Hints:
Layout: E1 7-13, H1 25-29, E2 32-40, E3 43-44, H2 47-60, H3 68-79, E4 84-92, E5 106-115, H4 121-127, E6 129-133, H5 153-162, E7 169-173, E8 179-181, E9 186-191, E10 194-198, H6 208-214, E11 219-222, H7 226-230, E12 234-239, E13 243-250, E14 253-254, H8 257-273
Parallel strand pairs: 1-5, 6-7, 6-13, 10-11
Antiparallel strand pairs: 2-3, 2-4, 4-5, 7-8, 9-10, 9-12, 12-13, 13-14
Amino acid sequence: MQKIINHTQTIITARDSSTISISDRGLNYGDGFFTTAKVVDGQVQYWPHHKARLIECAERLGFPELDFYSLENKITPHITDLQLSVLKILITRGEGGRGYSLPSECNITILLSVLDYPRNYSALAKKGVRLEISPIKLAAQPYLAGLKTLNRLEQVLIKKAMQTQNCDDVLVLDHNNNVIEASAANIFAIKNHKVFSPLVDECGIKGVYLQSLCDKLPVEFKRVQVEDLTQADAVFVCNSLMGAVPVKSIEQQVFNTANSHALLTKLLAKEAKC
């Protein structure tokens, strides 16, 4: 991908009086990407992985290189005094171009938001999550697979459908009935002391927490069916905000969450000694 040399980077925070243009490409075309991070004691958890996500999104979507020095300096004063919060970094291609055509000069817009940490995550981590299967299936698009772009209408429909389902979250499948992810989290499972997770090479998001887990454990990425999960020894949903949360049930299949915690803890401890 050819690099764009002439570009600017505008950073807007919730405390600024600046506003986003109605001509912004992120607003009009979903031309952008984002990451959502957990802030603990003034520090962004898994920051190297969030940074790697932003870099990959920028490269694959043909954005210019991001100025992380300016970005980090802008973030720091907004999170320094926070004990537990959420930082959202949203990046668009800014204004310009005719219709869908790209602008000759890219004027990146970066929106920084500091949000409350979800109240229900602590409870879910203790009791585990109940999963049902979503009726909304993900379309295949390898060019965007793995990326956290601004195009999230499928997830909006998934959350809408969840209003009629009696569960904490859902398993989301593709049109070949492969398990891809949860509504806003990745999935991984343990079977015979080995960890596996669905491939996201045609759709789905490559999550930050799951990438960090790969630094600690060998994880096999493969095609996964619902039966592979229901026959597993333990199943987890995970993202950078909640960490790894055990699955209590998938439809009628029930898991022992205490056993799930023990299996994961044992695997992490074993790999740490290696």
